[in-house]
């Protein structure tokens, strides 16, 4: 399963082994840490995190892999973070509240942009930034995916990571990228990637159809602040679900809009079902089959983050996923086509829809009898 396990701690004076420098650093920071398979980020307890200058928490998903983790920033009305810069990438996603972020880029120019629920932004690597809650009455809660686990385990030096003056001038993107504009870049097949530093609202961002991943499915891949960190946004239309697939750990899925559930299973195991709503995050563990289902009367949207982007995949595993994520296992890919799916999956979905009074629309895309196992 490759889930994270408790580490043996060497008694004082004994040789140290199996050290995780990132977890040691987190323990020394003294912030609340939550670890689970699926977490509702709106309910995680936060506490003052001196380095951040604001309330915060750390969220470790069971399927987070070796490179990334999630931090929470929780700002009171009118509150602000301390000015921060660091040698790790970070993709912020606004769960609730309204405010602004100021980024001082590598050329010394200052950029300020306003965000709200559903916004996503990434300060370019090692730029100084500060996050402000612009409301006088409402708290603001923001989740960030970051690759500090990878950086801390590789470098093992807090000062080098947090007090490094190096300017990565090639990562700016300029004023328009901080203002919510971007560039549509073709990738492979008919797919495209949106290059920017800031997406004002992922709930309404225009996506492209991607029927190879499921009936009524749409998607956009993002390249944020010319980073190595990946993000994408996917939509499932009403009355539909995606095809099951599997891959290595570290994809973190944040529910942005709508309600539904996901099934998880290893070969030969029973399905594990997790129901979710906006604010939930989960990360499929190593090579676990997973499949997402929309049970609400509105389209579902989720964003996913990972280490290794479409432009900079970083690992051989990510290069493979980019090209094979929508290819049938029968053709060497990692996806179970609808025609090969267990009929129990569709029946379970119909039951879930009936409870919510929502009509199944899978029949508009393919033969429902086939999904129910009623045809040869
Ligand atoms: Fe996945």
Map the helices and strands.
Blueprint: H1 21-29, E1 33-36, E2 38-40, E3 47-49, E4 54-61, E5 69-75, E6 90-96, E7 99-104, E8 110-115, E9 120-121, E10 128-133, E11 140-146, H2 148-155, H3 158-162, H4 174-178, E12 183-186, E13 192-196, E14 198-199, E15 208-209, E16 217-224, E17 229-236, E18 244-245, E19 252-257, E20 260-265, E21 272-276, E22 280-282, E23 289-294, E24 300-307, H5 316-324, E25 335-336, H6 343-356, H7 368-371
Parallel strand pairs: 1-4, 13-16
Antiparallel strand pairs: 2-22, 3-4, 4-5, 5-11, 6-9, 6-11, 7-8, 7-10, 9-14, 12-13, 15-16, 16-17, 17-24, 18-25, 19-22, 19-24, 20-21, 20-23
Helix pairs in contact: 1-2
The structure holds fe (ii) ion (FE2).
The site of fe (ii) ion (FE2) has 5 residues, from loops.
Keywords:
376 residues, alpha+beta, eight-stranded mixed beta sheet, 34% strand, binds fe (ii) ion
Helix content: 10-25%
Strand content: 25-35%
Tell me the distance between the termini: 35 Å
The rough form would be described as: globular
Work out the radius of gyration.
21 Å
The helix count comes to: 7
Unreliable spans are: none
Q: What does the largest sheet look like?
A: 9 strands, mixed
Total strands: 25
Describe the oligomeric state of these chains in a short phrase.
Answer: single chain
Instruction: Report the bound ligands by name, code or SMILES.
Output: fe (ii) ion
Q: Which structural category fits the helices and strands?
A: alpha+beta
Average pLDDT reading: 93
């Amino acid at each position: 399963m490759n889930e994270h396990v408790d580490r043996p701690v060497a008694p004082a004076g004994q040789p140290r082994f199996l050290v995780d420098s990132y977890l040691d650093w987190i323990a020394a920071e003294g912030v609340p840490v939550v670890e689970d398979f699926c977490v509702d980020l709106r309910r995680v307890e936060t506490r003052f995190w001196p380095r951040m200058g604001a309330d915060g928490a750390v969220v470790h998903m069971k399927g987070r892999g070796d490179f990334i983790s999630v931090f929470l920033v929780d700002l009171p009305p009118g509150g602000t973070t301390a000015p921060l810069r660091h040698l790790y990438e970070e993709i912020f996603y606004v769960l609730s509240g309204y405010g602004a972020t100021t980024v001082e880029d590598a050329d010394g120019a200052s950029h300020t942009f306003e965000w709200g629920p559903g916004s996503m932004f990434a300060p370019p690597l090692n730029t100084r930034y500060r996050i402000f809650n612009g409301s006088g009455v409402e708290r603001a809660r923001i989740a960030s995916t970051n690759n500090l686990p990878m950086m801390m385990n590789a470098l093992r030096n807090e000062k080098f990571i947090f007090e490094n003056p190096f300017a990565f001038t090639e990562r700016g993107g300029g004023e328009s990228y901080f203002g919510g504009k971007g560039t549509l870049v073709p990738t492979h097949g008919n797919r495209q990637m949106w290059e920017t530093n800031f997406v004002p609202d992922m709930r309404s961002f225009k996506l492209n159809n991607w029927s190879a991943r499921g009936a009524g499915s749409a998607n956009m891949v993002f390249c944020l602040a010319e980073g190595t960190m990946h993000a994408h946004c996917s939509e499932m239309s009403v009355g539909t679900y995606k095809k099951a697939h599997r891959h290595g750990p570290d994809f973190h899925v944040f529910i942005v809009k709508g309600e539904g559930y996901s099934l998880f299973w290893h070969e030969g195991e029973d399905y594990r079902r997790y129901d979710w709503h906006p604010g939930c995050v989960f990360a499929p563990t190593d090579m676990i089959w997973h499949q997402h289902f929309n049970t609400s009367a509105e389209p579902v949207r989720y964003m996913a983050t990972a280490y290794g982007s479409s432009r900079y995949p970083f690992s051989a595993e990510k290069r493979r996923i980019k090209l094979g994520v929508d290819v049938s296992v029968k053709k060497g890919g990692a996806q179970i086509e609808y025609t090969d799916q267990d009929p129990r999956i569709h029946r379970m979905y119909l039951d879930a829809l009936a409870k919510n009074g929502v009509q199944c629309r899978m029949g508009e895309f393919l033969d429902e009898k086939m999904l129910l196992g009623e045809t040869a």
